[in-house]
Write a structure and sequence with these properties.
With 146 residues, the protein is mostly helical. The chain is built from 8 helices and no strands.
């Protein structure tokens, strides 16, 4: 699961870096687009536990919802909502590996309204429950300690 996550994140960042590099040569409009995307990503990362709408994400960069969707599509090949869910799940994975917090608390801390929805989205993405994921990481940690 870690390798799959790492591949997905690497691909996302490579797409972003490649798109941003291409945009650098296109002038001032692209600089504004790059800045807007950075502001929206920062907003998502800073507000993980809170409910967010695409309108709020777009407002963080002072652009329209349509422009928000366009920037995410062109640069990250996903919607703002998909990126937000993926980032929340990534954050949950980190918390499951490093903390002993109850899974319900981790789900809430990552912006999932209830543990059922959290478990469903987690299983869709990683093919196992959050509890199973945590146990796998605990087993790996214990193996390396021996």
């Amino acid at each position: 699961y870690e390798m799959k996550l790492r591949d997905t994140l690497s691909e996302t960042w490579m797409n972003l870096a490649g798109s941003l590099h291409l945009q650098e040569s296109n002038g001032e409009r692209d600089d504004r687009s790059t800045d807007a995307l950075k502001m929206m990503l920062s907003y998502i990362h800073e507000h993980v536990p809170q409910k967010m709408t695409t309108a709020e994400i777009a407002a963080a960069a002072h652009i329209s919802e349509r422009e928000c969707y366009r920037l995410f599509s062109e640069n990250l090949r996903c919607t703002p909502g998909d990126y937000m869910i993926d980032y929340r799940l990534q954050t949950a994975c980190d918390m499951l590996k490093t903390s002993e917090e109850p899974i319900t608390i981790i789900g809430q801390a990552c912006g999932f309204g209830n543990s059922s929805f959290f478990g469903k989205r987690f299983a869709q993405k990683y093919g196992c429950t959050p509890m199973k994921y945590r146990k796998q990481w605990q087993n790996k940690r214990n193996y390396w300690r021996e």
